[in-house]
Amino acid sequence: MAVTYLPERMKGSAYVLDPNQDMCYAGNVTICDTHAVSRFFFWNLTNPLEVLAGTQPPELKEVGPFVMQGGKEKKSEITFSGNGDSVVSFIATSYASWDPTSFCETCNLNDKIISFNPGYYALIRKFGSEENFVHSLTAKVVATLVERISEVFRSFVEQGNAPKHIEEAVHAGRNAVHAIAVAQWGNASPLQGASVADLAPDLWPHGKPEFASYASGLTAGDGDTVGLDPSEANIVYRILTEDPTGISVLRMLARSSLELAEDLSVSETKAELIRGYIGVHLRKGYNLNAVESMVGPFLGPESSGIFVRRTVEQWLMGYFDPLLSPRYRTSDPRYFSRFITKNFLATDLQPETYVERVPDDSIPRDQWPGVGATPWVLATGMDNPSRTLDVLESTLGDVTIPNGTYTYTSTGRSIKVAGKKVANAVYPEVKRKGLNAETVAWFDFGNSLDLARPVRLKYADDYEEVHSDVKFHKFQVHPDELIPCPTSRKNCDYNSRYHGVWDLTDHRMVPMTFTMPHGHRADPRMFGFINISDHACPFRPDANAHEMEWDVLQQTGNVVGMKLRYQNNFEIKRTDMFYPNLWKPDPISPADISAREGTLRDGIYLPIAWVDISWRVPASKVADIARAIADVKGAILLYALGIPPICFLLISYSVIVLYIRRQIRRGKSDCNAGRRANASESFGTIRSENVSSPSTDIELSDAEMARVPKSFSTHRKSLFAAPSWSGMESDEESVKAPTVLVNLRDVQKPY
């Protein structure tokens, strides 16, 4: 019984994502507690002016923690598919509430933090340089200049000193005045070759706005010969202003004079003049002024630039950037810049304050994780329990990551999406083979925190006894995953150049690296300005506070807790126009790995904040686990202590029964032997001449006596006093007993 029952009692059912058993997947939309607590620690830049001037390296001060608790996850568009519902897909959004009681003593959400602005850097990187970005504003600048020329003409009419044709155009309406303003911009004919700046100089502090005036000044000729006729002016104006992103202007500037002339339907001479008007006249004047106006004053409350100052709440919930935000509608989730967390406030889930955080199709799907909505595709394990919670597709989507394969452009290596969902995996190998079994997770934590690589975990030879019967075993990142290239050939695939540092540049808007907080287990030379041995160094790596850990229940292989502790470090280097003196390490410096590395690197890596997102199954679940373990242990104890005496009793009973049966059988055998002896004696005295019976007077002839066995000759008992032979057929001795044949028909009876 123990051999068959106990293993089944301990075996249990494999964990799978079954909508009939897991309430978090039972429906199209679900909301479940994650029990996550998020702690945010900022690195406040205390000397931004000196860093910009290049006179000092960055000086950082740690501020925090700022805490959000009561984590919840909303799953939307839950869909099961595949053979036997083997695949589930859904959109995950995360929510939490502020926990001011857990803030540091002097911490407040209105505290100001100065740090790096990744949005600005991403914008410049998109255009290739600050100069290109300035050129990209040409569309807006030219449209604004023509509109201001229209306003000047209207003011002339209001003042009563406008030429008749301008007065007629203004009275004719908006389209007419716009057309005459374009003509003034192209050839200055409405003012007889004069510039509007000549008539109202205070309105044009950066020079004459018209192309005609610029061209005339360069050629010292008449505006009519180098200006644009009405048809040309309309074509060039339309081409310059039709693309609000300014990308088409950059392409235009990159083309040859002949190609540009063909595109604009003008002569090569005019094409070159147009290039100069955009690339020199507007860039140095109106475009540059437009950028400076948009960026705002240094560290202003709503300014942009490479460094910005915002409140803690703005850093965490999103802030307005004058260079980025106006590119989107105010209702677009991209309107606010968020680079630290994508958590939403739990009030967004309340009916009276509900806000839908899953984007619509106007936003490309690969951008959804960046605005806090992560599309997951996971294995349910319904067809194969060993695959439960395997990540099947990139959260960025198949368009960005074709066939679920990341390509590292820096190394040319392609990496297939593979491994368990790192935040809440199930490792059946741990259950089957023990704590040293192979455990591989796909390092994508959602909300754009996608490290684009599988990572092995390793048992840390440590555990926490959360209950007298329950132990949570600690796993950490395998040390081999932190070894840089070329010591680790495998990590060369990921462009890993520093120990403990994962380079994410190939899949991010800006160059950046991922480390544990304070650079724990990372080579500090990567930062470019950190001297870990200096007592003034802000980094103080501590394994207890900064190590990433996973709690695993060995009996099932389930991850029952996690401490995700990470720090994103952004590359900062000098720019071509606005920040040309930004501090950088010396080309050959003790802070560099080698002279070659120092020569190649011309920037530093600066963190904005570090984050600790921790969760663990609640006490009620620990109690459930303890009861289950106690139940199994009780069954083991029951059978360990109960089966031996039970087996002894059964064996004793069997021995007694066998003994009794043996004795009964032996008694029968003795009884039968006695009966045979009595039967033999009952023949009495048998003589060789005849046999007589005093009671019957039967006499046997010599022939009949010859048939009587000799063994009966000594017996004295009467033949007819012999007992019956029935019931003795089973005895072995009965087989050997003699058979006596008596022919009663020949017996003579006297009467």
Q: Poorly predicted ranges (pLDDT <50, ≥5 residues)?
A: 1-11, 683-698, 711-751
Total strands: the figure is 19
Q: Radius of gyration from the CA trace?
A: 49 Å
Largest sheet: 15 strands, mixed
> What distance lies between the first and last C-alpha atoms, to the nearest angstrom?
78 Å
Oligomer state equals: single chain
From the helix content, strand content and strand pairing, which structural class follows?
alpha+beta
Kindly state the percentage of residues in helix: 25-40%
Q: What is the residue-mean pLDDT, rounded to a whole number?
A: 85
Strand content: 15-25%
Q: How large is the count of helical segments?
A: 22
**Shape verdict:** elongated
Strand and helix map with partners:
Elements: H1 2-11, E1 30-33, E2 37-45, H2 48-53, E3 60-81, E4 87-98, E5 112-116, H3 118-127, H4 130-136, H5 138-159, H6 164-172, H7 174-187, H8 196-199, H9 211-219, H10 223-226, H11 230-241, H12 247-254, H13 257-264, H14 268-295, E6 307-311, H15 312-317, E7 344-345, E8 374-379, E9 405-408, E10 413-416, E11 420-421, H16 428-433, E12 439-444, E13 450-467, E14 470-477, H17 489-492, E15 502-503, E16 512-515, H18 543-546, E17 549-553, E18 558-573, H19 595-600, E19 603-616, H20 619-681, H21 702-706, H22 732-736
Parallel strand pairs: 4-7, 11-12
Antiparallel strand pairs: 1-3, 2-3, 2-19, 3-4, 4-8, 5-6, 9-10, 12-13, 13-14, 14-17, 15-16, 16-18, 17-18, 18-19
Helix pairs in contact: 1-20, 3-4, 5-7, 6-7, 7-11, 13-14
